[in-house]
Prior knowledge:
The structure holds two protein chains of two kinds. Chain A is an alpha/beta fold. Chain A has 17 helices and eleven strands. Chain A has helices at residues 2-21, 43-53, 68-80, 96-101, 114-117, 122-126, 150-155, 164-177, 194-206, 222-237, 250-258, 271-275, 311-322, 324-334, 346-353, 364-379, 385-399; strands at residues 27-33, 57-63, 88-92, 129-130, 133-134, 137-143, 145-149, 184-187, 262-267, 286-289, 297-304. Chain B has a single domain (57-277), classed as MetI-like (MetI-like fold), CATH 1.10.3720.10. Chain B contains eleven helices and two strands; from the N terminus they run αββαααααααααα. Chain B is flat, with a radius of gyration of 24 Å.
Amino acid sequence: MVTRLGGLALLVLLVVGCGDGGAAPGIELVFRHSRMPGENDPLPALLREFERDHPGVRVKHEPLPWTADVQHQFYVINLEGRTAGFDVLMLDVIWTAEFARAGWLLDLTDRWPAAERREHFEATVATAMLDGRVWAVPWVMNVGLLYYRRDLLAASAFAPPRSYDELASQARVVMERAAERRLGGFVWQGRQYEGLVVNILEELWGRGVELVGDDGRVLADLDGAAAALGFRRRLLTDGISPRLVTGADEEQTRREFGAGRAVFLRNWPYARKLFESPTSPIKGRVGIAALPGGGALGGAHLAINRATRYPDLAWQLVRVLTAPEAQRAIADAVGLHPTRPRLLEPDLQSIFRAARARPITPWYQTLSATIQPAFSAAITGVTPPRDALATARLQLEYFLQP
Amino acid sequence: MTSRAARTERRLAAALLVPALAVLAGVTLYPLAQAFILSFERRVPVFGIDEFVGLRHYAFLLRDPAFGNALRVTVIFTVASVALEVVVGTAAALALGTMRRWRAAGVGLLLLPWCLPGVVTARIFEWLYEPTGWLGIPGRALPALVVADVWRTMPFVALFAYARLISIPPSIGEAAAVDGAGRLATLRAITLPLLAPVLLTAALFRTLDALRAFDLMYVLTGGGPAATTETLTLYAYRHLFQTLQLGLGAAAAVLVLVVVGLVAWAHLHALEASEART
């Protein structure tokens, strides 16, 4: 494993070295980002515009590997080597604190006026900061939300639930009255991966429990967290959540709800368009609401590699790509949501405003990777919630020791 | 005179071996030594943490329930999948041996799963398993992965066995038939004993692979649900690449190496014993 890491680093160095050797005259900025979903990638047009305004500068944009895990690895290997293989980078909101602490990002505090920061949703700006300094600029935003079957809830005269307990009892009533035997109540992402952490965090927030306290202690309220996990376990044993949940990711749950087999779904906003497509069996029957306690914040920021040779130009590029016009263009073309309230569809605004950030800590990856098996063990009934959490806390004490 | 010539010869042989040994040492021993040294450190390069901790990582691993669990999962996965691969592979080889026509087509078909990259196999099984939900159910996920692994690597065992099978002179079987042995008796008394050394070798390769199983779990379950499919390699991966605790990950990798080494040693012993018998 160690040798593989070394080998990868070497390979990357070689590739980067070749790139520098063949540099064309003029300045070349390199922008690393993940592929835009769909077919109308808005980036080339935005970058051409930037090049027009900055004669002599060329922007090369290179897509990252497909999965978040591999993207993270890519960045760690490249940035740890302090190479200037790219200047501007897109990063997941949960990586900012880690990359900032590692010293890989350019401090943007003095470049980005505080007045402009206030244009963006507060929660997403918070994830771009660490220790009172700004390390990235919000680019696109995502928030977990509750999809519900408007027709089924209306038949029982229910309003969208405001707590998870209410959600469970509504689901039970609707399921009992439903003609469709296979109708599930609440589908969510329970596979052992980052998505599970997101779902459990939302459950914790709905009950006023914190995973990481203000003092930095992890799982200080073990009983509160255990109760929240126990609730999710009961959803499964009581049949309100179908069994597929413990192995499901976003797409699997989206298909289940999309086929008309569930009353409630927790997912990201992208699913909405698919539910309203002409061939969708539930077209026109889907409502959206904020999750009780708020949905988890996702999305991406743009940051600048501290090793860049062109910090000012890189900053100009970040400004252009995160400008209101660019965010609107991206939203129109591929449906990724802007980070400014005034650019957002009205019915999403309150949901986005209720968004909450996952714990903002340089150790987030460690925290998440350690707690995933514990959450999974609790919801599948392999380990009682309290024991699973106590084990995870012991492991984290060893990993996070100062 | 002859002894001096033999000595010179031996010395020349040793000298000629040196470059090869040096390369081997360079590519295996050096990284191994590095990993070993790393396992005594708490190193999180991302945050500039680098301190000597002695045996603390090993002490932690031995009491970490997740590591014990990974060891258990690895052993169960290895025993189950290798045993099934040997049985099914042998059966496939015997079936191939009795085919009069389409043998080449049979071999080609058999090779297909073996040729697919692991990640592609994983995706195929992801689609197959999705309607069942097995990958999310503790107690079903690991057997589901074993089935995928058997499907993928059984051809390896089958081809090993088939190659040996066609090299058995037909006269032996004919002699047995003349002596009045039935097909089952021939299989038990002649074919299987002749196949045994080859099967043991194939099983050794497969065991060493299975002990380091990674790609199927990585793609299909990420080690879940409830870490019931987290193998030792996945555990080491989690610390080396996700939590970036290089020292701890290295310690886990060293322990994987010890386990693999012990199993390889035991296997080689069994192989020697079986060769001594035949």
